[in-house]
Amino acid sequence: MRRKSFQEMHCSVAQFLEVGGEWWTMLIVRDAFFGVTRFDDFHERLGISRNVLTQRLEHLIEHGILERAAYQDKPVRYDYRLTDKGRALWPVLNAMRQWGDQWAAPDGPPVIVTHTPCGHPTTAVHICSACREPLTPETLKATPGPGARDGLLSNLPPKATPTA
C-alpha cells in the first residue's frame, strides 16, 4: 500500500518525510554513515528484500542523498556514497539514535559515538546559535518564515507557560 504523499504540504518536516520518512530509508542512511557502500552489504546487514532495497537506493539517489559510482564494469556494480546533502542528515539521524538510546534501549546504547579529536564519548546538545543557551521546547517559539504560505502556524492553541 502506497502511503500518502506530503509533496504538496508546505512544511519542512513534511518535505523531509517525503524523502526520508519511509522506515528503510534512514536505516540505509545510517549504514552509509557507518561506511557501507555496496548493495550486497546493505542487503545482508539490513535483511531488506532486494527489490525494496533497489527502490530505496533509487529514491535516495533521485533526491540527491546518495550518489552511485561504478566500481566494476562487467557486470556493472556500484558503490552508494553519501552526498553533501546526505551527510547533512547526520544531526537528524543522531537525534533519532539519541532518542532510541534514552527511551528504547533498556540494555544501554547499542552504539557509542566518540568525538575523535578529543577521544570522548559524546552526545549532541542543541544550543542557540546566538547566545549559546540550551534549546528546549519551552524556550522556543515558531513564527512564520519567509517561505510561509498556507497558514501552517494559524489556529494553534496558545503556548503553555513553562512551570518550574
Can you walk through the features of this model?
With 164 residues, the protein is an alpha+beta fold. Helices cover 36% and strands 10% of the residues. It contains six helices and four strands, in the order ααααββααββ. The strands form two sheets. A two-stranded antiparallel ribbon has the order 1-2. Strands 3-4 form a two-stranded antiparallel sheet. The mean pLDDT is 87.
- Structural category is alpha+beta
**Helicity level:** 25-40%
**Tally of individual helices:** 6
- Taking the alpha carbons of the first and last residues, their distance comes to 46 Å
Question: What can be said about the biggest beta sheet?
Answer: 2 strands, antiparallel
Task: Show unreliable segments.
Answer: none
In order across it, which strands form the biggest sheet?
1-2
What is the overall silhouette? globular
